[in-house]
Amino acid sequence: MKFLSKLALLSVGFVMLVGSHVLAEEDNYDTIADSMVNGSLAIQPGEMVVIGGTPAEVDLMAALQVAVAKAGGQPLLTLTIPEANKRAAMEMPVEHMAQLPTQNLLLAKMTDVFINVGSVQEPGLFADVPEERLAAFRQAAVPLTLAFNNLRSRSATLGQTGGIPTVPYAESVGADPTELQEIFWKAVAVAPSELLPTAKKIVSLMKPDAEIRITSDAGTDLTLKVDQTPARINAGRTSDVQAPTGPANVWLPAGEAYGCVHAANGTLVVPRTNFRGMPIENLKMTFKDGEVTEMSADSNQAMLEDYFAASSSKLKYASLIDFGLNPHSRSPKGTHYYSWEMGGMLTLGLGNNSWAGGDNDSDAALNLHVPGTTVSIGGKNVVKNGELKL
N or C terminus: fewer CB in 10 A for the chain? Predict the structure, then answer.
């Protein structure tokens, strides 16, 4: 299981690629930081703000630190080093991997606001880590996930599927890096006022037990029912998130209406998805009473089977549906780049949906972007052949 009027001032021309890193001129970083801090999050004096990223985003994190300080917040920077995480995953004794991440749990309880920025420098970095080792990490983090999803915090994440575009990630989905960046920043610049009307229409249709029908030329024919949990909106501002419990989260580029589902029956066909940087082609899943009963794929099927086998049985249940609404986010022709916010994109989630207010507390999740679908909610057409109809 996701912007602001001020970001309309952002100039795509400032953004450039150097090596595999995403860079921008200093003034542009300041514009982005100001929009996230004062627009997306409306940070107040005295709030504790954790800013997280990888070494590739250090300059952007620095701009965010300054913006938070100017707003009166108390910034704390946390750095994730993917290569070190990989080494730890490969070299730690399994009994250590199973320890509760107490440090992160205590930090989460102290924090008012989380800001996350990230990019994928090496798409297949974790593809060769044995599944049982990654499962140990996931299972140890369950208490942290549950605690975080019950905190009344706010968060904004810059970068949806694939994060902020990089050369390696663009190449992994068959896209031109420059074109992908232009699409990304144009989508980030969309104002909430452009996204909210359609989002509210979809949310108004997602009443408890309303039937959702999904079909596609690729072979999808699936029905689900809307859960009791109120559907939510990501228009790029936490103030627009109606979350009766848990955190108010937004993801950029923004543009989503999403909610929890159950009672899936039928067939889902996903022509192409990536799992830990590896392509899964022609994925087919059969659902009965909400649960996956059969699964096949033309490539890397064993990776998914290992993931399901090492995870909670609740991963097998369809639990989330997400509608992409951003009119400027799109998949470049001939590529396999798909993301949550793309206008007309349908994303189906399996497993953990607690971040969306649901009650599936699985230690794992699988989110599948399904382009080109036709979708109705309660008999009303919402998407036709991958295009929004509201």
Answer: C
